[in-house]
């Protein structure tokens, strides 16, 4: 009988030891595989789901069982999975996001949703262009007419406008509308940057605008599409060194969503909608996010429907930084979509300059 009891105890101890070993191995593997998940911003985003009042209620319930349970406190298992391995049991995207092509795009967090914004119409990145064809197709483009007269140069530069993907073009400006990329600065996002520069300068804000042909520069270095943010980082750092008073940095892109998603009708005028993108893999993340959200809300007050909102991207669904670690006032703006025309783009540039100038000169409500 004693021998049987000892065997049972030994077997139980073995099972306990094996269980501890399996759990320890699992936790080590999780930490090694997902150590990038444990950024302060990510941990804060998870803990923000916990209502501290609900926690207090649960603590009181442990002594006074008559107190009804809180419905706002997420289950411990759900919170642990989210914090440890970024799996949310109620969100299938976290389980299959890396297995189903394209689904990883929907890891993007909607920080602030504009009118009509949801997970189905988030910004879509254009496929990498065939750089070797861009120079050839430029010969077939028609010139766009710039309606704005040149503005006088302002000595002190406060805003830097640049384009990490300068080839992103707008179909209504292209002769061959099967294309969506061009190195012609009258057809691509550079024309938007130039218009925004002019509008800001009329409001007394000095602007430096980079018209760098990113395609040409990447080719000269034998770099590929995925190194475009490394190149634009150099552009920003150079601008910061040359203009000590630069404070605001705006990277202008254009979305690939269709016109029905990227166009707004406000006060009987057509506008190309704006979408603010914030990278969260750096220490300035929260300050840049606050800045983007402030502009979004200010735009909503004066031009309701113009801003599609603010999205936050990590390393798993984008660059994750977008050069925004260099400053506390950095923006990446999806300016309209591939189908927006020049009038819509110019109207939006004027509206953004209007709202931004109020923020800049301290007229915006805090």
From TrEMBL:
Is Chaperone one of the keywords UniProt gives this record? no
Query: Gene3D superfamilies attached here?
Result: Zn-dependent exopeptidases (3.40.630.40)
- What domain of life does the UniProt record list for this protein's source? Bacteria
Q: Which Pfam families match?
A: SpoIIP
Which residue ranges run through the membrane?
12-34
Q: Which UniProt keywords apply?
A: Membrane, Transmembrane, Transmembrane helix
Q: What is this protein called?
A: Stage II sporulation protein P
Q: Which organism is it from?
A: Bacillus norwichensis
Lineage at the top is: Bacteria, Bacillati, Bacillota, Bacilli, Bacillales
